[in-house]
Every structure is written in structure tokens, then in C-alpha cells.
Design brief:
The chain contains 10 helices and 8 strands. The chain has 268 residues and is an alpha/beta fold.
Length: 268
């Protein structure tokens, strides 16, 4: 289990925490957010939209889809509304296993488990599906003979594919292991290939050349390739802020909000 926290390097989880207004972060993390703010002043809203997408997706899965077991890859630091809280509010018996190997997250992982005895944390590398799927706590907690939900929210855009495997390959390995009737939710930075592409590339440049060093904006086709063999839930791949919003839109979208998409699919 990772134990050393290098505070001189930015962490994905802590940068996210910074943008959400949290306190579990360090100067290197705050530097990334400040640099992003210079090219996209609305970066905090970008992050809030992503968290809201996670909550709406989880409510859909626990409510209408009837899912009561969740594998959440890249859990991040505990915040106001975590997956287990959103799921168990609708389905108290729901079991949630969080996966993350960020040392900061591992150090705080216990906080995610204090709520109840149906929430678990596994320090594993989400880019290694077999490491995750074969973990004893995962196999003991989740019943792979019944439908479950796999969440890959805000994770794969931090993988640059230089390791030889594509994001699509990684997701295919996860999806192959899921039973029929399972759901997959994914969110990702988008290069919209329109007037907002320049902003996407400026944000990508900041991510890649900041203390964080990762954050790739991919096209719709590249992102959809990460959902092989799944039946997409309406409205398909959509801006996170527009995926079944809580109400009518009263203000125009900010440019950065048009560079973050999410999708949910069901395995036949």
C-alpha cells in the first residue's frame, strides 16, 4: 500500500480537491488550478459539474436501474457527496468498493469507510483491470453473477496510452468481466473539434506541463471507443452538465463546460 506522500508533486485527487474548494491539498496542487484558471477562469465550475454528474449518474443507477453494487475506480478524496452516500440514500443496502492508489487518497481512505459496513476501499491501480477485479476484497464484496455498476469518472484522461495499452483496451477488459445487465459510467475531457478546440488544447497544455503532468482531451470517437459492446443510455455521450440535468438551463454554458463529457452504457 502506498504510504509516502510527495507534496512537491501535484496529485490528481488533490488538484480536484483544490478546485472543489477542499483543504486536503498543497502548493503544487494549487499551482495547477491557478494555471488552469488563467486559460479557463471557470475551472471551478468545470469541476463542480463533474461532481454533479457523478451524483446524478449514481442516483439513476441506484434508482431506475436498480443497481445495488458499485465499483468506483479513482475514488478521489472524500468530499460532500460521495458515491456510497448518493447510492445508499436511494438503496440503503447498496455496497460500494472504491479503487485508488493515490497515496493521499489511501491515507484518507478510512474516512470513506466510517459511514457504514457496506463501503470498502482497495488501494489498487485502476489501469490494471485484473489487479482490481481479482482483489480479494472486490471478489468478496461484489457478486459478479449479478449486475453491478463500474464507474470510471475523470480517470482515463490522465492516462496517456504510452504504456502500450489503449484506454479502449483497458475498458474492454473491465467490461468483459461484468455480468449481463451491468452498467458502465465514464466521463472524460473532450476536444469538441469545433470553436472550443483551442480552449481544450490550452487546458491540455496546462495539465501536461504543470506539476500534475497529465490530462488529455480526446475526441468523441476516441471516448466512445472506451465503451465497447455497450448499449448507451439516452442521451448517449453528452456534456456532463447536460446529462439529465436537475432542471432547465437558466444561463448559457461557459466554454470549459463544453469540454467535459459523460456517458452511461448497459451491457446486454
Amino acid at each position: 500500500m502506498p504510504s509516502f506522500i510527495d507534496t512537491t508533486k501535484a496529485s490528481i485527487a488533490r488538484v480536484y480537491d483544490t478546485a472543489l474548494g477542499g483543504k486536503d491539498n498543497y502548493p503544487a496542487d494549487r499551482e495547477v488550478v491557478e494555471r488552469l484558471r488563467q486559460v479557463a477562469p471557470e475551472i471551478e465550475q468545470f469541476t463542480v459539474d463533474h461532481r454533479a454528474f457523478l451524483v446524478r449518474v449514481t442516483r439513476f443507477l441506484a434508482g431506475q436501474a436498480g443497481i445495488d453494487q458499485f465499483l468506483d475506480c479513482g475514488s478521489g478524496l472524500p468530499t460532500a457527496e460521495n458515491t456510497h452516500q448518493a447510492a445508499q440514500r436511494l438503496r440503503p443496502e447498496a455496497r460500494v468498493v472504491y479503487i485508488d492508489n493515490d497515496p493521499s487518497v489511501v491515507a484518507h481512505g478510512r474516512a470513506l469507510l466510517e459511514e457504514n459496513d457496506r463501503t470498502f476501499f482497495v488501494p489498487a491501480d485502476l489501469l490494471e483491470p485484473r489487479q482490481v477485479l481479482d482483489d480479494p476484497l472486490v471478489t468478496r464484496t461484489l457478486d459478479f453473477t449479478r449486475p453491478l455498476a463500474l464507474l470510471q469518472l475523470g480517470t482515463l484522461h490522465h492516462y496517456d496510452e504510452s504504456g502500450g495499452r489503449s484506454c479502449a483496451d483497458i475498458m474492454r477488459e473491465y467490461i468483459d468481466a461484468l455480468p449481463s445487465g451491468s452498467y458502465v459510467a465514464l466521463s472524460h475531457f473532450l476536444d469538441p473539434q469545433d470553436q472550443d478546440s483551442a480552449l481544450a488544447r490550452r487546458m491540455e497544455d496546462v495539465f501536461l506541463h504543470s506539476p500534475l503532468g497529465s490530462g488529455t482531451f480526446r475526441t468523441r470517437e476516441q471516448i466512445l471507443a472506451m465503451m465497447p459492446g455497450l448499449e448507451l443510455v439516452e442521451p448517449g455521450l453528452e456534456l456532463c452538465v447536460n446529462w439529465w440535468p436537475d432542471g432547465p438551463r437558466l444561463a448559457p454554458l461557459l466554454p470549459a463546460q463544453r469540454c467535459l463529457v459523460g456517458v452511461v452504457g448497459r451491457k446486454p
